[in-house]
Write a structure and sequence with these properties.
The complex is a heterodimer of chains A (about 120) and B (about 110). Chain A is an all-beta fold and about 120 residues long. Chain A is built from no helices and eleven strands. In chain A, the strands form two sheets. In chain A, strands 2, 4, 5, 6, 9, 10 and 11 form a seven-stranded mixed β-sheet that branches. In chain A, strands 1-3-8-7 form a four-stranded antiparallel β-sheet, with no helix packed on it. In chain B, the strands form two sheets. In chain B, strands 2, 4, 5, 9, 10 and 11 form a six-stranded mixed β-sheet that branches. A five-stranded antiparallel β-sheet of chain B has the order 1-3-8-7-6, with no helix packed on it. Classes of the chains: A mainly beta (about 120), B mainly beta (about 110).
């Protein structure tokens, strides 16, 4: 069974450029998460989707970050324009949802972004 | 409060037991998780424990929960070089998102 797929794995861009990350969750998982992981830190939630609906985006910097999950499956996270401080690993995770008792989340390998 | 604390580093010899500790602040936490992250990889769920349990064992892994002290530990028996990684403690309560600690880097010396 395929896990959470993310692409690209690595991205290097210059500041002020746009960048997009793509995530394909595990088949059947209704809930999709985007996390930001800075060096030496644990992941921090950016946004959570239940199917197509963003149910928690309180930590998403909406001036430059946007996300979509149009058909309730794949998702894209975009930054425009990127800043030096955006350099980090962007992790995608999926789960069956919080209607299940444990809501176990499965993580993808992440996209490492470097902004020069 | 939402604060999960972990020691940053742990070094053990191959074959010894490793104990990774975590403290959390929210007494209403429902589930507590341990994740493993190897270099360049995402997080792999190792195990979790429900807040009404004191202990959970899964092969070489033993999780102990002390609710009074809000202390969680992960013991890895017979630690191997392949166990070298960063281990994250995380908590969740109700419908809130997972809150992670900063991770403990485990180094296993052959």
């Amino acid at each position: 069974e395929a896990g959470v797929v993310q692409s690209p794995r690595y991205k290097i861009i210059e500041k002020k450029q746009p960048v997009a990350f793509w995530c394909n969750p595990i088949s059947g998982h209704n809930t999709l998460y985007w996390y930001l992981q800075n060096l030496g830190q644990g992941p921090e939630l950016l946004i959570r989707y239940e199917n197509e609906e963003a149910v928690d985006d309180s930590q998403l910097p909406k001036d430059r970050f946007s996300a979509e999950r149009l058909k309730g499956v794949d998702s894209t996270l975009k930054i425009q324009p990127a800043e030096l401080g955006d350099s980090a690993v962007y992790l995608c995770a999926s789960s069956f949802g919080q209607s299940t008792s444990t809501d176990t989340q499965y993580f993808g390998p992440g996209t490492r972004l470097t902004v020069l | 409060g939402e604060d999960v604390e972990q020691s940053l580093f742990l070094s053990v010899r191959e074959g010894d037991s490793s104990v990774i500790n975590c403290t959390y602040t929210d007494s209403s936490s429902t589930y507590l998780y341990w994740y493993k992250q190897e270099p360049g990889a995402g997080l792999q769920l190792l195990t979790y424990i429900f807040s009404n349990m004191d202990m959970k064992q899964d092969q070489r892994l033993t999780v102990l929960l002390n609710k009074k002290d809000k202390h969680l530990s992960l013991r890895i028996a017979d630690t191997q070089t392949g166990d070298s990684a960063i281990y994250f403690c995380a908590e969740r309560w109700g419908n809130t998102p997972l809150v992670f600690g900063k991770g403990t880097r485990l180094s296993v010396i052959a």
